[in-house]
Specification:
The protein is α/β, with parallel strands linked by helices and 241 residues long. 45% of the residues lie in helices and 13% in strands. The chain has ten helices and eight strands. A six-stranded parallel β-sheet has the order 5-4-1-6-7-8, sandwiched between helices. Strands 2-3 form a two-stranded antiparallel sheet. Helix 1 crosses helix 2 and helix 2 crosses helix 3. The radius of gyration is 18 Å and the shape is globular. The chain starts with 6 loop residues before the first strand and ends in a 5-residue tail after the last helix. The relative contact order is 0.16.
């Protein structure tokens, strides 16, 4: 991929794919209100587990973390589900829908040859591959992504620097600081943005909620902030503001 100056690396969960359908499935068991709070708690523990494992120098596959964090969220909420319901929720990750702005952006991206795209995720190869190909919305555009890059090989999670250097190597952009700066991460997760910027990558934060950048831990800030993915092509190619 080194023949292209810039490469767009898309985070998957929370950036391209929405977990809203997970909340809908949970609502069939617990009703809308409990389902929403449970889905948020599940996501919180899912991310917290990855950060704890990074801090301890340990690794478990993201699929295992996703299952364990669900059990944790259920226990905290004093709720329970049977094995069949748990398996159904795990399987739902293969059929997530995209955010409304994703498909128009991918159509635009497919019309340019100057910005190749990849997926870059904490998930396992199997989990991410299934999610990309089986999503009813994203599946038809799966061929647009030249690679699926996961953290499985380095056994670290974002925002560990090793994960972003791994991405750069996979993209053939690891030879110099300038080459790393040709990697553009697109993510809706602030921790992902600061992790990419910390190693010298460019990063576009997708602020769909329109609340602005509120992260105060790191000096790192996004290269650009967008309200929707349709803006990214012009930004990467230098035509946008």
């Amino acid at each position: 991929m080194t023949e292209n100056k810039f490469v767009a690396a898309f985070d998957l969960y929370g950036t391209l794919l929405s977990t809203e359908s997970i909340a809908k499935e949970l609502s069939t068991h617990f009703g809308d209100e409990k389902a929403q709070s449970l889905a948020l708690l599940w996501r919180r523990y899912q991310l917290e587990y990855t950060w704890r494992l990074n801090s301890m120098g340990q690794y478990e596959p993201f699929s295992s973390i996703t299952r364990k964090s669900l059990y944790h969220a259920l226990a905290d909420s004093e709720l329970s589900l049977g094995d069949a319901a748990i398996e159904s929720l795990m399987k739902a990750y293969d059929f997530l829908s995209t955010f409304p702005d994703v498909i128009p952006a991918l159509k635009m991206l497919s019309e340019t040859t100057t910005v190749p795209a990849v997926v870059f995720s904490n998930g396992t190869e199997s989990m991410v591959g299934n999610s990309v190909k089986s999503s009813p919305d994203l599946g038809p555009y799966s061929s647009l992504f030249q690679q699926i890059v996961t953290v499985e090989e380095v056994q670290k999670f974002k925002p560990s620097p090793e994960t972003y250097y791994h991405l750069a190597r996979k993209l053939g952009k690891h030879g110099s600081k300038a080459e790393i700066g040709q990697c553009w991460l697109i993510s809706g997760n602030p921790f992902d943005i600061v992790g990419a910027c910390a190693v010298g990558m460019q990063a576009i934060w997708v602020d769909r909620a329109g609340k602005g950048w509120t992260d105060h831990l790191s000096k790192e800030k996004p290269t650009a902030i967008v309200s929707g993915l349709e803006e990214i092509v012009d930004i990467i190619t230098g035509q946008g503001t």
